[in-house]
């Protein structure tokens, strides 16, 4: 492809991504409980900082729905002033992980845990934003939000609920006309129509509050930085860093499957994300991750190089500086409908069906992780999911097979093969204790690849007990 064609393709793709990113940046900010301008700042940094750094060539970064729940909890707990400190700390953690070349290890995280995390986030996001669609206040806890849905129809503002519902309908129907969706992205059309109808008919619904970019950006002070000594703050920093990194690197793997260009360097991409989050933190903005919706739009629009994602940041900056007042005509219910639609996409219904057919244990890990996030919080839910995934893996690899060969007068030969761990000790002892007590037994352990201390001690006790009746010989070739 000629350079002129490359520039033209990247320019067109950047405009498409800008139109997709604009309503999402604002919507994520509102759902996170922060000024709308901070979402745009994060989108700008995603383009101008992370966009120019090496890592993934076509992946686009910005504020993501996947961190909305965690950001909202952090802002409610520590205050808006602490957000910059948390994001800055997370960026520094990501930079450290990337410098230590640990980016590739994020691919070792159980896919079921990641999908469960996204499902839990999606459920909490949907439950919370349904209230915003009706201009109603949402309960604080995840379970409270779900339980309160029963009484929501009586509390919701009917006009706002209609605006939010119509937004979801547009998001579902517009992409079916592929030619139209290529020209005008569904998120932009849905929000623009909602804003237009609200303005023309002067509907009494809540609109986005515009504070101005300079008023919204609040860099952390030295006193704010001192709060990093608090245990709760440090835990939130780690949660921001790990979840943002996992989401970004899993997104990179998905984007790599969409194009034939250079593959992602995971360590460099982690450094790019860390640098972007450090800048976002210094500006007091939202945390940044790679976002699959924007990245897929970038690839599908024909982007060839990283120029497209950098330019999308330029367009966001121009919009924020030149026409920030446009945000004030956008109804909050429309943005809530946009996020309800995004939350539904986070729930991996198709993946659950596939896993159920071949890996039902993975479905259990996914489901427990999602439920733990809904019942508790995001960080605790992920820890529960990881612990369950590790326990499941330990169980799966602890396969012990016991084979018995009767050699008549020469006695019996019992061969134990596989991995003997405490998880399979009851099965192993049941098989050994079922052997005849009036026969000589030769126990061969050469087929064992691993024996933990619990199994080794149990085998020795079993052999010692057999010595009182018949002679048992234990042999091992490992």
Automatic annotation (TrEMBL):
Q: Which domain of life is it from?
A: Bacteria
Where do the SLC26A/SulP transporter domain residues begin and end?
Answer: 9-367
Its keywords, alphabetically, are: Membrane, Transmembrane, Transmembrane helix
Kindly list the places in or outside the cell where this protein is found, as annotated in its UniProt entry. Membrane
- Pfam families in alphabetical order: Sulfate_transp
What PANTHER family does this protein map onto? Answer: SULFATE TRANSPORTER
What is the protein name for this chain? SulP family inorganic anion transporter
Give the originating organism. Streptomyces mirabilis
């Amino acid at each position: 492809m000629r350079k002129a064609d490359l520039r033209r393709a990247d320019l067109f793709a950047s405009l498409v991504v800008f139109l997709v990113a604009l309503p999402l940046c604002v919507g994520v900010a509102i759902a996170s409980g922060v000024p709308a301008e901070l979402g745009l700042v994060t989108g700008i940094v995603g383009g101008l900082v992370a966009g120019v750094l090496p890592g993934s060539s076509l992946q686009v970064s910005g504020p993501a729905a996947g961190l909305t729940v965690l950001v909202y909890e952090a802002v409610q707990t520590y205050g808006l002033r602490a957000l910059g400190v948390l994001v800055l700390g997370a960026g520094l953690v990501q930079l450290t992980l990337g410098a230590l070349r640990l980016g590739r290890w994020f691919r070792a995280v159980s896919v079921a845990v990641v999908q469960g995390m996204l499902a839990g986030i999606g459920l909490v996001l949907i439950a919370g934003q349904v209230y915003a669609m009706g201009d109603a206040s949402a309960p604080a806890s995840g379970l409270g939000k779900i339980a309160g849905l029963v009484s929501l129809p009586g509390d919701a503002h009917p006009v706002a609920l209609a605006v939010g519902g119509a937004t979801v309908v547009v998001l579902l129907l517009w992409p079916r006309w592929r030619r139209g969706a290529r020209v005008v992205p569904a998120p932009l059309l849905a929000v623009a129509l909602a804003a237009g109808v609200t303005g023309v008919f002067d509907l009494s619904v809540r609109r986005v509050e515009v504070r101005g970019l300079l008023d919204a950006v609040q860099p952390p002070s030295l006193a704010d930085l001192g709060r990093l000594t608090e245990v709760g703050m440090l835990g939130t920093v780690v949660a921001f860093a790990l979840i943002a990194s996992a989401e970004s690197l899993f997104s990179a793997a998905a984007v790599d499957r969409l194009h034939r260009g250079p593959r992602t360097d995971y360590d460099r991409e982690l450094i790019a994300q860390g640098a972007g989050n450090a800048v976002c933190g210094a500006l007091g903005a939202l945390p940044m991750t790679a976002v699959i919706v924007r990245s897929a739009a970038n690839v599908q629009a024909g982007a060839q190089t990283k120029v497209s994602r950098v330019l999308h940041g330029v367009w966001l900056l121009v919009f924020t500086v030149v026409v920030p007042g446009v945000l004030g005509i956008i109804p909050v219910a429309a943005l809530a409908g946009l996020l309800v639609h995004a939350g539904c996409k986070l729930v991996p219904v198709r993946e659950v069906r596939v896993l159920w057919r071949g890996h039902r244990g993975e479905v259990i890990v996914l489901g427990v992780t999602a439920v733990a996030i809904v019942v508790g919080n995001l960080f605790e839910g992920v820890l529960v999911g990881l612990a369950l995934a590790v326990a499941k893996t330990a169980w799966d690899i602890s396969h012990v097979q016991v084979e018995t060969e009767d050699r008549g007068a020469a006695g019996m030969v019992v061969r134990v093969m596989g991995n003997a761990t405490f998880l399979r000790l009851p099965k192993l002892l049941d098989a050994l204790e079922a052997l005849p007590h009036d026969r000589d037994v030769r126990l061969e352990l050469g087929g064992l690849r691993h024996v933990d201390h619990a199994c080794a001690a149990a085998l020795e006790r079993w052999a010692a007990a057999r010595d009182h009746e018949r002679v048992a010989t234990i042999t091992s070739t490992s």
